[in-house]
């Protein structure tokens, strides 16, 4: 039985995949700097004897596994490779050796897992029809996102996949489980850079000044009110300013205030409309109070949508592999992922891999300096994605 063979192979290679993950964890590289990571992935695929190219989006790697009748159907599997600018606080043998850089979002696990899946699929390629494209993608963590670059450079062509599958670690889920959601799943993400200018002066003489701090306070409050009043309540939307710099003093009103923030949405029409409304409101409010406002929006990732039909097919495959009790439903998330770019090009499904273990204290969230995973999850992740892939190849569509 093919499922039993996949599970046996996943067990056999489990220790090797743990070692791979630990090597990557010890040697993290930031977005657009994954030089050694890309080389390592390419070398590992070469060791497996898997056809591949290296260099798309500079550091990306694309592998190809051809089964019987390779032109029958093509699907893609994706993993991201970049790390974050975080100083690791974990005291583990595989702690990051690159000061101030850490795999705090699990991309080391994603890459190691897809390498394991590739190894399994290559050993059973005589038992499925079609072709599997392996996408090892750089720069998920920074705009414009490695996915957008790889798409522009043709990763979804020659051969063109009909669908794509990706996974992401999820500490709130215990190892042994996965989570899925059909339809809208993750938000779009835009970066906001705002400078409010006035006329500084003595803090005791505000009548001689145009206080940009007060103007900024009004702008922030007004923008929050606009977001809550102008969008349909059933369409999630978030506006957050995480950096506000008014570099004055106890008795000094500064000349300007600088802000950085993020805007998230689940609707592209509202997203575009909100961009116009936010900019106009901020500029007009500053002007009405005697100042000026420069409002720049760096448009980022689109919302991520899991294709309804594909997600239900993948859910059935997962249940057959794990059991229904280990496949849970997820809520909408206002975080963002550049896998979204793929989901707007072809049917895609992005699911969550449980990596937590409360009993062992493995509970830290992603993007924290104590993040880690229960590595038992890597046996499940490698086998499950292989199982999903071969079943998706055989599905109609």
Properties at a glance:
397 residues; alpha/beta; Aminopeptidase; Alpha-Beta Plaits; 2 domains; eight-stranded mixed sheet; four-stranded antiparallel sheet; 9 helices; 16 strands; 36% helix
Structure description:
- About 35% of the residues lie in helices and about 25% in strands.
- The protein starts with a helix and ends with a helix.
- It has helices at about 1-25, 35-50, 105-125, 145-150, 210-230, 270-290, 310-320, 340-345, 375-395, and strands at about 50-55, 60-65, 75-80, 130-135, 165-175, 180, 185, 190-195, 200, 235-245, 250-255, 255-265, 290-300, 305, 325-330, 350-355.
- It folds into two domains: about 1-185 and about 305-395, Zn peptidases (Aminopeptidase, 3-Layer(aba) Sandwich), CATH 3.40.630.10; about 190-300, 2-Layer Sandwich (Alpha-Beta Plaits), CATH 3.30.70.
- The strands form four sheets. Strands 1-2-4-3-5-16-6-15 form an eight-stranded mixed sheet, with helices on both faces. Strands 10-12-8-13 form a four-stranded antiparallel sheet, covered by helices on one side.
- The model has no long low-confidence stretch (mean pLDDT about 95).
- Helix 2 runs parallel beside helix 3 (about 105-125) and helix 5 (about 210-230) packs antiparallel against helix 6 (about 270-290).
- It has about 400 residues and is an alpha/beta fold.
